[in-house]
């Protein structure tokens, strides 16, 4: 959703929908870490099997495992690094994570297809066993020491459960106190909201506090307003979350001018997409595009207030965009221009 594909219609409602999909994305990714490690641990002895291949079909099947393992390991590793805001790799995370996901899904389908015969045979055997006195998990284990098959399953499931329970508070409303293992607490930061990029990091500490600040709206009837004029415009409030792609979400009550009122005043038509630009001079998130469903939504604000106070400099003072059902990365801070595209 950071780079929404053209074929996807993304509505502004429900306001929490992106929070749900992003939360599930990060939670399922984290829960997969113990599951993937367990899977690799149970299958790696087969790497040393001799002879390595017996038939052409088996050779192809073994080769197809390379992108599957490489893809799933790299998805989980880069995903965990991303939510910790750690980018040791030289590529752009979002685009790589997206395309490697498709590659991994493809490799997984090939793997399932290759193993279908084995799965079918096993299912048939289980059915036969279920008719008899034993079930597969209670079959006698080879050896006697160490972890049983059932014990292993329980341990892996418990590990996935612990990871989920200690990180889900990042995005589940009201559970902020439980985020033991998460890199971030959704209530830590100025005005009880986390900050992803500070004003200092964005290099806007001087420009954002400039008394000569003007908000420009560029359309068929362009205009600009001073900060005092912006504050004097009719103000609305909206209770909306910021949902960062880095895995946290936090609700706040925002106050500001409806974006659609500014667009109307500049005579920008209802079906126009607009670009919201920041004072930030460099950086991938210094502007965002707002498509008509979001631009015209009554909850989409150019906010000057949060939780009853003027915005903190780190939250985008003097004005920031806040819109329903949008990734945090598109909620542009330190806004100074809105341009019709
Ligand atoms: N100009 C600008 N706006 C920005 C960013 C940025 O780097 N530059 N980061 C975005 C990201 S990734 C998030 S999650 C939200 C976080 O808002 P907050 O720092 O007020 O919590 O701001 C967004 N707005
Ligand atoms: Mo973000």
Task: Explain this structure.
The protein folds into two domains: 17-178, no CATH class; 191-340, Sulfite Oxidase, Chain A, domain 2 (Alpha-Beta Complex). The protein is 39% helix and 16% strand. The chain has helices at residues 17-43, 56-83, 93-131, 149-165, 199-202, 227-232, 259-265, 292-295, and strands spanning 214-218, 223-226, 236-243, 249-258, 274-278, 287-290, 301-306, 309-310, 320-322, 335-340. The mean pLDDT is 91. Ligand MTE binds next to loops. Molybdenum atom binds at residues 196, 244-246, 328-329.
Task: Write a concise keyword list for the protein shown above.
2 domains, 10 strands, binds the ligand Nc1nc2c(c(=O)[nH]1)N[C@H]1C(S)=C(S)[C@@H](COP(=O)(O)O)O[C@H]1N2, Sulfite Oxidase, Chain A, domain 2, five-stranded mixed β-sheet, five-stranded antiparallel β-sheet, elongated, alpha+beta, binds molybdenum atom
The percent range for strand residues is 15-25%
Strand arrangement, major sheet: 2-1-10-5-6
Output the helix-strand order. Answer: HHHHHEEHEEHEEHEEEE
Biggest sheet features? 5 strands, mixed
Number of strands: 10
The span between the termini is 20 Å
Q: Which hetero compounds are present in the coordinates? A: ligand MTE, molybdenum atom
Query: Could you state the oligomeric state of the chains shown?
Result: single chain
What gyration radius follows from the Cα positions, in whole Å? 26 Å
The residue fraction in helices comes out at: 25-40%
| SS-based class | alpha+beta
Low-pLDDT regions: none
Number of domains: 2
Number of helices: 8
Can you give the mean pLDDT? 91
What coarse outline follows from CA principal-axis ratios?
Answer: elongated
């Amino acid at each position: 959703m950071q780079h929404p594909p053209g074929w996807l219609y993304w509505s502004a409602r429900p306001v929490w929908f992106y929070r749900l999909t992003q939360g599930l994305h990060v939670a399922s990714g984290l829960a997969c870490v113990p599951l993937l490690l367990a899977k690799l641990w149970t299958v790696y002895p087969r790497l040393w099997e001799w002879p390595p291949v017996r038939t052409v079909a088996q050779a192809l099947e073994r080769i197809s495992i390379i992108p599957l393992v490489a893809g799933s390991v790299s998805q989980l590793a880069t995903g965990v690094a991303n939510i910790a805001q750690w980018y040791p790799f030289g590529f752009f995370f979002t685009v790589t994570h997206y395309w490697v996901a498709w590659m991994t899904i493809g490799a997984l389908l090939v793997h399932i297809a290759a193993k279908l015969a084995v799965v079918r045979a096993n299912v048939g055997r289980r059915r036969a066993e279920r008719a008899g006195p034993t079930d597969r998990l209670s079959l006698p284990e080879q050896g006697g020491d160490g972890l049983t098959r059932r014990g292993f399953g329980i341990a892996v499931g418990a590990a996935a459960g612990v990871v989920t329970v200690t990180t889900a508070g990042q995005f589940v409303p009201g559970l902020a106190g439980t985020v033991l293992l998460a890199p971030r607490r959704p209530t830590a930061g100025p005005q009880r909201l986390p900050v992803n990029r500070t004003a200092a990091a964005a290099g806007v500490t001087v420009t954002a506090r400039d008394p000569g600040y003007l908000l420009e709206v560029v359309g068929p009837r362009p205009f600009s307003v001073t900060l005092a004029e912006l504050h004097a415009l009719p103000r609305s409030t909206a209770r909306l979350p910021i949902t960062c792609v880095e895995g946290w979400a936090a609700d706040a009550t925002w106050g500001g001018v409806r974006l659609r009122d500014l667009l109307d005043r500049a005579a920008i038509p209802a079906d126009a997409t607009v670009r919201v630009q920041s004072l930030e001079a460099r950086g991938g998130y210094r502007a965002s595009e707002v498509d008509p469903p979001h631009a015209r939504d009554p909850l989409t604000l150019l906010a000057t207030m949060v939780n009853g106070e003027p915005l903190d400099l780190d939250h985008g003072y003097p004005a920031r965009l806040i819109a329903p059902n949008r990734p945090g990365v598109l909620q542009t801070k330190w806004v100074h221009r809105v341009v019709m595209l």
